[in-house]
Amino acid sequence: MNVKVEVKMLESAKGLPLPSYQTKHAAGLDLVAAEELTLPPGARGAVGTGLTVAIPEGFELQVRPRSGLAIKHGITLINTPGTIDADYRGEIRILLINHGEEAFTIKRGERVAQALLAPVTHLVWEEVEELPATERGAGGFGSTGK
After folding, report:
1. Considering its fold, how many domains does the chain have in total?
2. Residue 29: inside a domain
C-alpha cells in the first residue's frame, strides 16, 4: 500500500537525498544526518535530518535504529521506536546514544536511522470489576519460563 506523505526539506538538507527504501522489500526508509555530530562514549545527542513532514491523520512515523551502526559502533536511539505524530511539523531529529567504547562521529549524509509509516489505533478504556482469567494470570517477568 502506498501512502502519500508531504515532506519539506530545510536549508540544512539541501543536496541530500530524500529518505528511501534500500531494497524492494525493505520496511523502513533510511534517514540521513543533515549535520555532523560527535558522540563520546556514553554520550547522548540529537542530529537533525533537515526534514519536516505532514504525516496523514491515522498514521505515525516510527523512527528506529540502524542495525549496522548498533552492532559495529554501539550507536543506537535513546527512545526506540521514536514516534512522530501526525500533528508534529518540526524537524525530524534523531536522538542517539553511544554505547560503544570510542567516540563516534556521525557525518552529514550518513544514514542514521530508519523510518516506518504505521497505522495508529486509539483505544477506548472499558473499566470493569474483574478481568477475564488466563492460564498465565498475573505472573510477571520470567513467569512463563521453565
Report:
1. 1
2. yes
DSSP class per residue in 18-73: PPB-SSTT-SSEEEE-SS-EEE-TT-EEEEE-SEEEEPPTTEEEEEE--HHHHHHH
The pTM of the full predicted model, rounded to 2 decimals, is 0.87
Residues spanned by the domain of 37: 6-119
pLDDT in tens, the chain (146 residues): 899 999 999 999 999 999 999 999 999 999 999 999 999 999 999 999 999 999 999 999 999 999 999 999 999 999 999 999 999 999 999 999 999 999 999 999 999 999 999 999 999 999 999 999 998 888 777 766 66
CATH number of the domain bearing residue 14:
2.70.40.10
